[in-house]
Amino acid sequence: MTVPNAQPLTSLDEWEDDLKVRYPEPGKPAFQATDPNKKEEEFRNYAKNARPSVREFYRLNHTFQSYDFVKAKKADFLQRNRRQMTVWEAAEYLNNLVDDSDPDTDMSQLEHLLQTAEQIRKDGKPRWFILAGFIHDLGKILCLYGEPQWAVVGDTFPVGCAFSDKIVFPEFFEANPDRKNSKLSSKLGVYEEGCGLDKVDLSWGHDEYIYHVVKDRMPEEALYMLRYHSFYPGHREGEYDYLLNDQDRKMFDWVRAFNPYDLYTKSHEKPNVEKLKPFYMDLIEEYLPGKLSW
Ligand code: FE
Ligand code: FE
Prior knowledge:
- By secondary structure, this protein is an all-alpha fold.
- It is built from 12 helices and 2 strands; from the N terminus they run ααααβααααααααβ.
- A two-stranded antiparallel sheet has the order 1-2.
- Helix 6 (109-122) runs antiparallel to helix 7 (127-135), helix 7 runs parallel beside helix 9 (220-228) and helix 9 crosses helix 11.
- The structure holds fe (iii) ion (2 copies).
- Residues 112, 136-137, 262 line the site of one fe (iii) ion.
């Protein structure tokens, strides 16, 4: 398979901007009709109007995120033998991810993390919730290891079983090698009904990576937020319920509670990094002290 442009997005934010078109903030005018019967039509319009770069990004993502690909990436990156960094060092490292977008209007990666966390803090949420906001995208350092955009961001979905047609641009799964495998393209695939998401491999990206870096040290609610925040087919579309167990269903309330902070807190008011740093250093010290393995 040939790859014309491995990095079609001008920035990773283009994926998140596109998410906001598909899942607009409640009360804000957008393409999504209030009439539920119009939903399908609206999604067709979305697909028609999506930027070519975003469309190409999903074409690559759906073509190459196969069961074998995910297993191989996990075997490699989950050894976590690349770097030893504190959480703050990782945030500064991620901030090296600069792209072609307009520096005057776009947030840096660190600013997105602080803005998400600060809104959670303003709403009086627990300290672990604030910390989850601060670290949720640190897995995007995968990009700095040279990984392609389609293996770092994008809505995640289970591999090893049939792809839901509620996943954005489902037609691009036609080119995924798993489509030709009768086991991997069956409803349950390699899984058992109700087996629980922990046993399910999702498409590889920044969620799963950060989850593994902190998994022994944060409350379960935070771990669900980190691990599944890009799993829109699950937490927004309600797909794949047959793979979930009762604990997953309970914990998904937290994933849904986190999502608006991630998607809708981007404003043009830049957070003051130096002023906020002491608070976050304390928070990191409380839950995730010292160097972590990345
Ligand atoms: Fe994210
Ligand atoms: Fe984010």
